[in-house]
Design goal:
single chain; 201 residues; Porin; 8-stranded antiparallel β-barrel; 9 strands; elongated
């Protein structure tokens, strides 16, 4: 009987201690989350690489640009809008023909979830790019609309400085370059992996 009473007291003490530790951890997590704010306007830059296709050929190149956006925070859920613009060397050349993508940009919505100082997000929206095709018979350029979808993660280094990594998939509408001896349907698609940094106001 004495042993049962001791075990009972020990169990109660252990439960009380566990509850206390859980409450302390919960409070510390809540304080950390309260201190971490992703809300506000931000502006920054990014660089990376891209690979894709203009069937049946493949393309590759570098990308660089700037982005600006705004986030709204609802507890751990982050909703935002972002616009970016930049340039790329993405292209392919061979057999006297040359394809080259030029300036590009996008307007995307974003949704993410905050793990304190780490934000995981998905993004998608509309994209625009100009690209040119050159053959021995001449050259043509086109501006085309498309879609972009992707995701990534951000890390809050300080209250205002954020670094990120993201993967984006682009799909642009097709064009014909048949009148200069090129293909009758060029539908550029590419996957872009880029790293960036921005300042949050």
């Amino acid at each position: 009987m004495h042993s049962i009473r001791q075990a009972t007291h020990a169990t109660i003490a252990l439960c009380a201690m566990t509850a206390g530790l859980a409450a302390s951890a919960s409070g510390a997590w809540a304080q950390a989350s309260h201190r971490t704010s992703w809300q506000g306007v931000y502006i920054g830059g990014h660089v990376g690489g891209t690979v894709g296709s203009i069937s049946p050929a493949t393309t590759s190149g570098f990308v660089a640009g700037a982005h600006i956006g705004v986030n709204g925070q609802f507890d751990r859920v982050i909703l935002g809008i972002e616009a970016d613009a930049g340039a790329t060397s993405n292209g392919n050349s061979g057999l006297g023909n040359k394809f080259r993508q030029g300036n590009n940009g996008s307007m995307r919505g974003r949704i993410g979830y905050s793990f304190d100082r780490v934000l995981v997000f998905g993004t998608g929206g509309a994209a625009v790019s100009n690209y040119a095709y050159k053959t021995t018979l001449g050259s043509m350029s086109r501006m085309r609309l498309g879609t972009v979808i992707g995701g990534g993660a951000e890390v809050l280094l300080t209250e205002n400085v954020v670094v990120r990594g993201e993967l984006l998939h682009y799909n642009f509408s097709s064009s014909s370059f048949a009148n200069i001896g090129g293909p009758s349907s060029v539908n550029p698609k590419n996957n872009t992996l880029r790293a960036g940094m921005h300042y949050k106001f």
